[in-house]
Automatic annotation (TrEMBL), chains A, B:
Keywords: Copper, Disulfide bond, Membrane, Metal-binding, Oxidoreductase, TPQ, Transmembrane, Transmembrane helix. Residues 297-712 form the Copper amine oxidase catalytic domain. This is Amine oxidase. GO terms for biological process: amine metabolic process. Pfam families: Cu_amine_oxid, Cu_amine_oxidN2, Cu_amine_oxidN3.
Length: 732, 732
């Protein structure tokens, strides 16, 4: 191992002088860019005037071919539903309450998260529009004096009503300042700068990224550490493809000190910029590929959904509450579907969200082993969800919703267009039947399939995660994760596979000269507090098993039989899927039957079933033990929402879904929560270079004897009169 | 077992008189309806004037809200590509050649199939538009004198150039006359009529269906048998929900005789018609559910694809040949994709089609055990594909293609609008990346995902199979099967589950009073003659396996490693998928490398992985042994296209993919064929009553190091100017 101590060696004064100037410029520029580092303490942070997000917005607005975005001023928002997120006024109140609290008065502190503390479920279930608003509370995670605290701020009284010091192994999610600190810390370090010079990178071309370092034993404990790796932006905006391989800087996020610099990549060239650019504006127009005529989803009578009071969505037979969340990204609450027979709204899902991600890379070497991301708890899946690009991220008929989050000092800022909602029609068929002529019945009936999509896209560094909640009129909810964005690649000396002694030792695929796409997995774990026609539900495993017939019973030797097993306790519901011993997984309400006596239910229909194959005792797998099974069911517990634990950063795995479930609590006919993990194995291929075509997987929540009959039986077919008359914009 | 002999007992003369009149009416009506039973021998069968299909067409045309269909007159069609299907003139020539052939001159014969005999692959590969047309040949399957023959008719010389008597256990696909014969045979049988009276069914309300009887041992051998089961159409068009349970009539299709009548259902009521109707025209308008505003896929500049010479489709970077087929449904040939760097068209798939289906029901009792359908080889997946319903089966921007098939006497008829082709846009994202503000780069790039869909829908009796071939500009082909239509249900005495002693013994789910939805599986096996950049390919299993690290090697204990195994012979490529020992399955061209040395390839990405769990020695599983694995690879052999054998009806399983593959031929660096089976387990639920919301599964053929870089990198984003200006039709 080639370690460079952080002390100065040699005389490089001139270079330092130049670097200092550059760094000064860089710092000024960075600091001006961030809303969470405001110099003034305005009540409302005008992100549209000062933030990096705003730069993107302006770029868009300058482009006359794009539709300008609805720019809602959130300063006068008031909460209208008990689950509505904190408003700007509420964030500011929390900020003031915290600032004057004894704990924080005299010491510098950082707020790692500020968000709504949802009222008790029982209160929310009883509440309806028109009732008095339930008391509003905020949950605050703060660090002061090297300690982490969880506080409850009562917004009505303006008091801190709960204050708890947290002694678990992990730390709260990083703030953007943490990331910023990490990125800039190496620049103060002569050893680092010398290495950069050695690698012939102009510091002006340098971009460094904060890489959560996981937890790998004692040496890394009791300090909030992060690893920083750097790239060259020379000749490309796609710096991810130009890694300064092998250079890893360990930084203490609390002291802002560089702890260690390791450079093992000095004989690895930085890959060339050729073919890496993906921006349209930078493209070579002669090679442009305009191969498909424009196509658009058009709704002549307008969309069929409404957004009431900012967060309640009503569409077709569905109603649900939708809010952006800094950690989960998007939270769907109180999803209810109308019964076509009785007309009543029936409960399906009390709360659904992305709970945690786990993204282990499959390279055990020094600069890579620690890359085992848990994006929601470490980076914030919502705070990394950038504004969606109208017409390209979502179709023309989309509605956009902003997120309002708090910076590290508590100041609110607006994440504009973070979520979109639209009706989708891909030309698919809801149901159909055509009668064979042999019956003599001239029947041809078909219904188009139209759905409602709620979308967000989180850009957690290089990767882009597209999360869709798709509601179907037949009662099905499809939860889909799309992976796009840019690979995390590794530099190598090889320019052709014929130079590689053992191809398996690449830990991935040679994508281009000197670029390896490293094998990795993605696991996205969803929290699904199902309330099927009420809170008390049971989990039933319906095993499909082969039954041999008795001699003489039948000309058949075998058939499949469905055997129902009701889970009594949590261990009965720790499910590893089996291909050759398949089951259906029902969440039923044992207290409510259909007319002919089937318990009403929803089933989770697994897909994206890739499982984590790491050693159970491997540190990253212990922290991500929630991926040990694809399905879990736990009793409802307000404190058990984040599958990797509340404090995931550098956690040691003592507070995960796996540990809670180990208690083996009763789950039959109780308020229970379903957890499902979507998994992907990703062996990169050249098509993923320099930016990846989206790969998606989804799982379904599907009604199973929930309705008496097909709930879309009575939908009318589409006729020509229903459709719009359209013209090419240029011809109008 | 209560068996009623086919002789007359008792005196029921009056009833017989009445029945005879009814039967006469029924027969006349049925015979008038079918194009394949023409009384005149016109050169072109005008199906638009005489067929049942035509009734449907007329019904549509009468409805002013639907767009009238393009009604192409096929009588002057000429073949322009060696793979073009037989034209009407060619069908007529075949009919004349066969009629004057020695074998058929003096005896009644039936043509079970007439279709193009594709020229040698090597010739087709060399052929291009502008070249002389290759010699045209037809392949004919005929039965005469109780024997089956396969003939080749040379269309240029007008001679039969091959004539082969087939001695395998199976029989050719049924003709529509076979089905018709089967349906009407019981009506001549007093025992049957008495039973119908006993069950209180008015013969005027009776509909019977021909159910392929499978093969279950000696008693059913050496006769072409079929089982007939009947339903009541009283008060509903959805007679499938009103089974006359337990009544099974065994019919000899060659002698037209009833062999046996079994009635074990006399104490089972016929379920009521309540809630079974699904036709819009019959609906109760007050309960209509108009919950979604119209939505349409609009293309202001028109579609981006062209149909050249009737069958060659060009879209975006794709080109392929498309034809309807009476057995396979749809055949995709010579699919090629343009390389964005070189501009050349590169071969991906020489031929792809649905090869066979296997649909075993999971009820071993007398009236159900034999229901183990093989829809393509028994019924004809294409000949059961009815006209698509514009705006409901396919969106407004769809193009429709007709099928031209031959009736049992060789007369051609047109299956109009059997296939549709359209561009789809669901609002999804082709690729995206947004730069985190921490890098200071204001980047937000996204591209909408537009695809091309080729669709057909086969209504094989009750079930509707929707088969989509979806082409993506990123090189991916998605093959999707949607299941809709109507369940095959079983009558029962039970009206509530609380009356059922052991719920597992229902063999299904109580869906409504007296109606059980029986558990069943669907397997759809695809033939995929991949030619990745040429015909000689290899199959590579890339195993993702856990690698433990050595002590001291890494803070990590484990990681996943990709280990490549090239299949040498067929047995290496008999793949049972494994959840916890996952693999990628590549079809590579070992003779062609990318710039950095990866073999160019495509991978099959499995999904819909339900496996058949029947006993391997169970007669239906022996016949459908091609479902013993999800993936197989065989050397190309023109005679190995139908996974269940050429003659599937009553086959004993001696000529399936499994037997061919057993030969264990070499497959490395050879012209090879990939087989993939999509599987579904279906435990019915009440939502499937009375007609099923579509359930879909799909698998992908995905480029893997086929392109040097992401092939859609240079696609432009959509701007507002690209989109149409639309108005509500009513406002124009």
């Amino acid at each position: 191992m080639a370690k460079i101590e952080t002390e100065t060696r040699g005389n490089l004064r001139l270079i330092f002088l130049l670097l200092s100037v550059l760094l000064l410029v860089l710092f000024t520029w960075l600091n001006l860019s961030y809303p969470y580092m405001p110099s003034n303490k305005a009540e409302i942070l005008d992100s549209a005037a000062s933030s990096q997000w705003c730069v993107s917005t302006n770029r868009l607005l300058k482009n006359p071919t794009r539709r300008p975005q609805r720019n809602h001023n959130h300063s006068s928002d008031t909460p209208l539903h008990p689950l509505d997120p904190l408003t700007i006024q509420e964030f500011n109140k929390v900020r003031r309450v915290v600032a004057s609290h004894a704990l924080f008065k005299s010491k510098p502190y950082v707020l790692h998260s500020v968000g709504l503390e949802e009222p008790d479920k029982s209160l929310v279930l009883r509440w309806k529009y028109g009732d008095l608003m339930l008391p509003r509370r905020a949950s605050v995670v703060a660090r002061v004096d090297g300690r982490s605290y969880v506080l409850t701020v009562d917004l009505d009284s303006g008091r801190v009503t709960r204050q708890e010091m947290v002694s678990s192994s992990g730390y709260p999610s990083m703030t953007i300042e943490d990331m910023n600190t990490a990125m800039s810390a190496p620049m103060n370090c002569p050893g680092f700068n010398r290495t950069i010079m050695d690698r012939r990178v102009d510091p002006a071309d340098l971009v460094c990224l904060p890489v959560s370092s996981g937890w790998y034993g004692k040496s890394e404990e009791k300090r909030r550490l992060i690893k920083v790796q750097c790239y060259s932006t020379k000749d490309t905006s796609n710096f991810y493809m130009r890694p300064i391989e092998g250079l890893t800087v360990l930084v203490d996020m609390d002291t802002h000190q560089v702890v260690e610099i390791v450079d093992q990549g000095r004989n690895i060239p930085i890959p060339k910029a050729d073919n890496t650019e993906y921006r349209y504006s930078a493209g070579d127009v002669h090679r442009e590929m305009k191969i498909v005529n424009p196509i658009s989803l058009e709704q002549p009578k307008g969309p069929s959904f409404t957004v009431e009071n900012g967060h309640t969505i009503r569409w077709a037979n569905w109603e649900f509450h939708l809010k952006p969340d800094a950690r989960a990204g998007v939270i769907i609450s109180r999803a209810m579907v109308r019964d076509p027979e009785s007309g009543e709204m029936r409960s399906v899902l009390y709360k659904g969200m992305t709970s945690e991600l786990f993204v282990p890379y499959m390279d055990p070497t020094d600069a890579w082993y620690f890359k085992t991301y848990m994006d929601a708890g470490e980076y914030g899946f919502g705070s990394q969800a950038m504004p969606l690009d109208p017409l390209n991220d979502c179709p023309r008929n989309a509605y956009y919703m902003d997120g309002v989050f708090a910076a590290a000092d508590g100041s609110p800022y607006v994440q504009s267009n973070m979520v979109c909602v639209y009706e989708s029609y891909a030309g698919d068929i809801g149901w159909r039947h055509e009668e064979s002529p042999i019956t003599g019945m001239p029947i041809r009936e078909a219904r188009p399939k139209v759905t409602l999509v709620v979308r967000m896209a989180a850009s957690v560094g290089n990767y882009d995660y597209i999360v869709d909640w798709e509601f179907q009129a037949d009662g099905l909810i499809r939860i889909k994760v799309g992976l796009s964005g840019i690979l995390m690649v590794k530099g190598t000396r090889y320019t052709n596979t014929n130079q590689v002694p053992g191809a398996e030792d690449l830990y991935g695929t040679l994508l281009s000269e000197n670029v390896i796409g490293v094998i990795h997995d993605h696991f996205v774990t969803f929290y699904l507090d199902m309330d099927v026609d009420g809170s008390d539900n049971s989990f039933v495993k319906v095993n499909l098993q082969r039954q041999q017939t008795s001699p003489g019973e039948s000309p058949r030797r075998s058939y499949l039989k469905a055997v129902r097993n009701v889970a009594k306790t949590e261990k009965d519901a720790q499910i590893k899927l089996k291909l050759y011993s398949p089951s259906e997984f029902h969440m039923i309400n044992p207290n409510k039957m259909t007319r002919v006596g089937n318990p009403v239910g929803y089933k989770v229909v697994p897909a994206g079933t890739a499982a984590s194959l790491l050693d159970l005792e491997d540190p990253p797998q212990k922290r991500a033990a929630f991926t040990n099974n694809q399905i879990w069911v736990t009793p409802y517990n307000q404190s058990e929402e984040w599958a990797g634990g509340l404090f995931v950063y550098q956690s040691q795995g003592e507070d995960t879904l796996a540990t809670w479930s180990q208690r083996n609590r009763p789950i039959e006919n109780k308020d229970i929560v379903l957890w499902y993990t979507l998994g992907f194995h990703h062996v990169p291929c050249q098509e993923d270079f320099p930016i990846m075509p989206t790969v998606s997987s989804s799982f379904d929540l599907k009604p199973v004897n929930f309705f008496e009959i097909n709930p879309i039986l009575r939908m009318p077919p589409t006729g020509e009169d229903d459709l719009p008359v359209c013209k090419d914009a240029a011809s109008v």
